[in-house]
Model the fold of this input.
Amino acid sequence: MTLTGKIAIVTGGSRGIGKAVCLRLARMGAAVVVNYVSRPDAAQETVAAIKEAGGAAAAYQFDVANAEQVQAAVKKIQADFGRIDILVNNAGITRDGLVAMMKEEAWDEVIDTNLKGAFNCIKAVSRPMMKQRWGRIVSIASVIGFAGNAGQANYAAAKAGMVGLTRSVARELASRGVTVNGVAPGYIETDMTRELSEEVTDKIKAEIPMNSLGSVDDVAAAVAYLVSEEARYVTGQFIHVNGGMFMG
Done:
């Protein structure tokens, strides 16, 4: 699979799953725009890693929850690179808490970043992609958006909303050569999960038929397929990367 000549935007691309996706797409030949909000050092580390491997990348700061910032950034990326071929909606946050005690701000922040952020980015790139009659949009959802999870009603709602958004936009853009899909990771080994105690980790593994956490590269591999030419006839779908934890 090759992406030579393609321009990819990966939101939240400075670390974790986003960084793995950036590195994978760069290895396939794409020039990668690494989006970040508050950690320029981490974003530059991702850019440096891509360049050291012979790829092309640049870091762009914008908040996906802010429509004006997204529109301005997309226009600048078009001016700088000449086109936009791939969008990976990966930026996301958590503000966990039980519904009875969840503050409205915690609900709004998660919905604004995780769901509205994906909408803002899709809206901004849809016209350029339709005009060139080729595009790939992939949104990173979560097993939580399909199965739910106590203490994460806001996160689950945002990720479930992403499923409906993905399938609706897939129908709107299919005739213009633009596919719209998603990847729903389960428990993936990241900086966050590495901080969990061994007891908690063992409990999580017990819920997974494969009895192990996934890796960021497992998720990046699914994204790589969906943005490739090999997936030209796949749209409105979600690939579940969760070791069998949820089968839907």
The beta strands are 7-10, 31-36, 57-61, 86-89, 135-140, 178-185, 238-241. The chain has a mean pLDDT of 96.
